[in-house]
Amino acid sequence: MAIPRTTPRTILWKLLRDDGIIESMDITPTPVISGAPLVIEVATAGVRRLDGRLYGPGGERERLAFEHVESGEFGDLWRAEAVVKTVGVWRARVGARGDAVEDTFTVATDDQAGAVTRIDAFSLAPDPVPEGDELTFTGVLRADDARLGGRPILLEFRADQEFAWTEITRTETGEDGEFRAVVIAQNSGFWRAEFPGSGRPDSGTPGTGSGLSADAEALRGSRSAQQHSEVEKKGLYQVSHTVSGQSVPKNTTIRHTGTVQKRDSVNDPWSTLNNETAELFFKGSGTNRKSVTKGKGRYLIKAKAVSSGAWGVKISSSANEFAEIRVTVN
């Protein structure tokens, strides 16, 4: 019988091996102001080291130094700051040992960026809310001397003990900046409202500054304070679902990530579920793309977005647990 060969080198290789994934990248403010600090936050699962660079429109290259700032049961949060001056569309690339993501962002002068905005009185109700019931959000977008009617508001969510934000739905402001949105409660976690801004210094393709248009009134992006929602779960399984983009060009490869949890009864605590098959669906039909959950119950499934529609993730142990997100193809 063959005896497994274990040496100091193989032990070191196993310790250094990194099979983690990058779940999301968030660049603020929107737009980035020339000569002022920008912040990049990255949510990961199972990543031990993170590297990154910024690439400017004139060939500029800036290295990012990431600091590990927070850990949760299912992942980690990293942060880097930088200062860039060249106006235009920049590209950010962040990589771990076995994974990498990219995004673009717009840099503008202080005059070009437009009026400062803020989101006030953001609230949700009811809390707690039974799983499957409606959860209602309200708030007000404010800015000095600006028209605020018909502005897009994004409702974003991150599950408890996770750091990746996912856009769940969109709504528009009324004449005075007020907004309202309703979603179906699925998992406990944090919610925030985001105004993506409007107006930009050129006609380049926006990334983090999605929603910007060259002929719109210039308003800076803003976010509300986070609000927590407690969902009273009924079942024995729980699936979270995050996508790398919800408004993307045709044939863009979308990264679907999340975690799977299980409990023995409705009164027991949740535990992560490894070696569980997670299957990706599009418009209710299977896509033949699957992933087996590993460390801390996480999965990663990649698929091209050819047309707009709802993507869902089902697990083999529970046909009723279906985490769905809509992706729009431009």
Give an overview of the whole structure.
The protein is mainly beta and 330 residues long. The chain contains 2 helices and 29 strands. The protein has a 5-stranded mixed beta sheet with strand order 2-9-8-4-5. The longest helix is centred in the first third of the chain and has 9 residues, at 8-16.
Individual helix count: 2
Rounded to an integer, what's the Rg over CA atoms?
21 Å
Q: Helix amount, in percent?
A: under 10%
Describe the global form. Answer: globular
Major β-sheet profile = 5 strands, mixed
Number of strands: 29
Report mean pLDDT, rounded to a whole number.
86
Oligomer: single chain
> Residue ranges: pLDDT <50 for 5 or more in a row?
1-18, 200-215
How many angstroms does the end-to-end distance come to?
A: 58 Å
Per DSSP, what share of the residues sits in E-state strands of 2 or more residues?
over 45%
Secondary-structure-derived class:
mainly beta
Strand numbers in spatial order across the main sheet: 2-9-8-4-5
Detail the topology: elements first, then pairings.
Elements (H helix, E strand, L loop, with lengths): L7 H9 L4 E8 L3 E2 L3 E9 L5 E5 L5 E4 L2 E5 L4 E8 L4 E8 L4 E9 L1 H4 L3 E9 L3 E2 L3 E10 L8 E8 L6 E7 L5 E7 L4 E7 L26 E2 L3 E3 L1 E2 L4 E3 L2 E2 L3 E2 L3 E11 L8 E2 L4 E6 L2 E8 L5 E8 L3 E7 L2 E12 L1
Parallel strand pairs: 2-9, 11-19, 22-29
Antiparallel strand pairs: 1-3, 3-7, 4-5, 4-8, 6-7, 8-9, 10-12, 12-15, 13-14, 13-16, 16-17, 16-18, 20-23, 21-23, 23-24, 23-27, 25-26, 25-28, 28-29
